[in-house]
Amino acid sequence: MQKKVLIVPLDWGLGHATRDIPLIHELLNAGCEVVIAAEGKHAALLSREFPQLTILPLPGYNIRYSQKGLFFGLKIIRQIPKIWRAVQYEQAWLRRTVAELGIHAVISDNRFGLYHRDIPCIFISHQLLIKTPFGGFTERLLQQINYRFIRRYSACWIPDFAGEPNLSGELAHPTSLPPNTTYLGCLSRFEPIAGVPRKYDLLALISGPEPQRTNLEQLLLAQLQQMPGISALVVSGRPDQAEKKEVAPGIWQVSHLNAKELNEAMLAADMVLSRSGYTTLMDLAKLGKKAILIPTPGQSEQEYLGRYLMEKGYFYSVPQHQFTLAKALENVKSFPFATFQHGQDMEAYKKVVADFVKTL
Predict the structure, then answer these.
(1) Containing H/E element for 178?
(2) CA 37, CA 5: separation in Å to the nearest integer?
(3) Which is more confidently placed, 237 or 72?
(4) 26, 121, 158, 349: which could form a disulfide with 106 (CB 3.0–4.6 Å)?
(5) In 155-211, where does DSSP find H-type helix?
C-alpha cells in the first residue's frame, strides 16, 4: 500500500519551504504519496515545484517583524501567545487530518504542534539552540522549551553535518542533543552543473519576512542603478507574483525563479548577495559559490551565522546598516573565501529518507 506522508514547512521566510523540496523528491522517489500543508507564498512556491501534489490550507504562525532591528526581539516576545495559539490549532488540525486522509507519517519543518501519538512524526530543525538578542538565560530557557516539544516527536532531523566543517556552529551542535537525532548533511535542492556560461557579475537573492525584505530590495536597487557597467539579476523572493523587468541597463529584476532557473542563475554569477538564511547558506555551500551575506537586522540567528561563517572564511558578511554595495564588492576582492568541502555527505539525507520510508 502506498504510504501517505504529510510535510509542513514553517512560514518563517521561504527557506523552510525550499529546503523541503529535496525531501519531497526523495519521498516521491520512494513511492510515497506526499501531501503538503501551507498557505500564502509557501503554498505558491511549492505548487509551482509540485503542481501534481495536494496542498492543504494550514495557517502559519504569521510572525510580524519590526521595522527596526533593534526592536526585533521584543516584537517576537510579544507574539508568543499568538504562536502558542497557533501550535494548539495545528495540533487539533493534525488529529482531524490524519483521521480524514489516512496519513501514515508527518514531517514537520520546525512547526511545534504537528506530532501524533499513533504515527511517526519527524521534526526538522537546525536551531536546537535558539539565539536571542538577550543571550544567556533566555537562550537556555528557549532551548528547554524547544527540547520539550522535540521530544514529543519520533525523531529530530538536523540539516547539517555532525562534525567539522559545518554550517550552523553551536545552533545545531549544542552541548546536549535531543534523543533520536540524525544529521541530514546539506539539504539543498540544487546541483553543480558543468559548463554553465557566466552571465552576471552579481546575483542578488532578496528574501525573508517583511518589512525587511522590502527594505533590502529598495536599498540594493538604488545602489545598483548608481553602478553603470555592472550586470546583475535581482530575484525578489515573491513567488506569488510573476514579473520580470530591466530596471537599468544590464540590471534585471524578477519576482521569482523556479528551482532549475535559480540553480542555473547561481552558477552563472560571479558573486551572490543574500540574507544569511540557513537554507540559502546550504545552497551556496553545495554549489561552492562566493557570497556577500546581509543578515536580517535584529534576527539573532542570521547575525550569528553571518559572524560565524565569516570567521571560518566561507562567506563575507556585513550588517545592513553598514552595507554599501560598491564597498562590499571591493572588500571581497581580498577576502579568502575558503571552500566548504564535505565529500559525499552533501546528500546524506537521501539515505535517511529511504530508511525512514522502509519503517512505515
Answers:
(1) none
(2) 11
(3) 237
(4) 121
(5) none
Give, to the nearest 10 degrees, the angle between helix 278-287 and helix 259-267. 60
Nearest to 195 by CA among 268, 113, 97: 268
Q: How far apart are alpha carbons 173 and 153 in whole angstroms?
A: 19
Calculate mean pLDDT across residues 205-223: 90
Instruction: Report yes or no: 7 and 107 within 8 Å, Cβ to Cβ.
Output: yes
Do 179 and 150 touch, CB atoms closer than 8 A?
no
Integer CA distances (angstroms), 1 to 104, 119, 174, in order: 11, 16, 40
In 160-219, DSSP assigns E strands to 181-183, 200-205
pTM above 0.70, yes or no: yes
d(CA 117, CA 120): 8
| C-beta atoms surrounding 274 within 10 Å | 25
**CA separation for the pair 86, 93 (Å, rounded):** 10
Answer yes or no: is pLDDT of 144 > 60. yes
What does the buried/exposed string (b/e) look like for 83-104 if buried means 16 or more CB atoms within 10 Å of the residue's CB? eeebeeebeebbeebbeeeebb
Q: What is the pLDDT of residue 138?
A: 79
Q: Long-range contact list for 304-312, CB < 8 A, 24+ apart?
A: 304/131, 304/169, 304/171, 305/167, 305/168, 305/169, 305/171, 305/276, 305/278, 305/281, 306/276, 308/169, 309/167, 309/276, 309/281, 312/165, 312/338
Confidence band for 207, pLDDT divided at 50, 70 and 90: confident
Contact between 259 and 49 (Cβ < 8 Å):
yes
Query: How far apart, in Å, are the Cα atoms of 151 and each of 89, 109, 119, 124?
Result: 19, 15, 14, 12
Q: Which of 191, 186, 193 is nearest to 340 (CA)?
A: 186
Question: pLDDT: is 67 or 187 the higher one?
Answer: 187
- pLDDT per position as a tens digit, 41-66: 899 999 999 999 999 999 987 666 54
Identify the burial level of 60 via C-beta atoms within 10 angstroms of its C-beta, where 0-12 means exposed, 13-18 middle and 19 or more buried: buried
What one-letter code names the amino acid at 7? Answer: I
Average pLDDT rounded to a whole number, residues 10-32: 93
| Count of CB atoms situated within 10 Å of the CB of 179 | 10
